[in-house]
Amino acid sequence: MAAAFSAVLIRLPSGKNVVFSIFSHPSFWCLWHVYVADAAKIRKKGFYISGKVWYHGLICLERRNEMREDLSERTPLSTKISLFVAFLLLTAANAFCILRGGDFDFTLQKWGYAVGFSALLSGLLCYVLFVLLPRERFRAAEHSAAFYPLIAGFLGLLCMALSYIWLGVWPFGKESVMIVDLHHQYGPMLSELREMLQNGGDVLYTFKTGIGANFISLFAYYLASPFNLLLLLFPPSLLTEGVLVITLLKNALTAALFAACLQYVLRQKGLYTVMLALCYSLSMYALAYSWNIMWLDAVMMLPLAVLGFERMMRTGKYGVYILSLAYILITNYYIGFMVCLFLVLYYIAFALRRQRSAAAQGHAFLRFAVGSLIGGGLAMAILLPVFFALRYTSAVGETLPELGSNFDIFKLFARLLFGTTPTIRSGKLPNIYCGILPLTLLPLFFTVRSIPLRRRLAYGGLLAVMSLSCTLNLPNLIWHGLHSPNDLPYRFSFLFIFTVLFLAGMLFPHMKDITPRQIFATVGGLCAAIVLYEALYAKNTDVFLSVYVSLLLVVLYGGILLLFAYRRLAVRAAAAVLMLAVTLEMTVSGGLTLDTLNGNEYYTDHDAYVDNAETRAAAAAVAEMNAIGDKEQGEGFYRAELLPRRTCVDTALFHYRGLTSFSSSNYYRTTRFLGSLGYACNGVNSYLYESFMPTADSLLGIRYLALSTDLEGHAQLEKAGESHTDDGDYIIYRNRLALPIAYRVSPNIADFTARRYHPFATQEALLAAMTDDSTPLYTYADITTDDSSLGTASAYGTQFSISGENGGTGWFTAAIESRAAYYVYVDCLAAKSASVTVTAPDGTETNLDASTDEPYIVDAGTLTEGTVITVSVTADTAVSGNIYVAALDTALLEKHMTALAADGMRVTAFSDSRIDGTLTASANGAVFTSVPYDTGWTVTVDGEKVETYSIGEPSKDGTAGAFLSFDIGVGEHEISLRYVPRGLYVGLLLSAVSLVAFLLLLIITGRKKRKDPLILAPMQPAAPLPVETAPSPLTDTVTLETLLTDGDDPTEE
Question: What are phi and psi of 903, to 5 degrees?
Answer without folding.
Answer: -105, 25
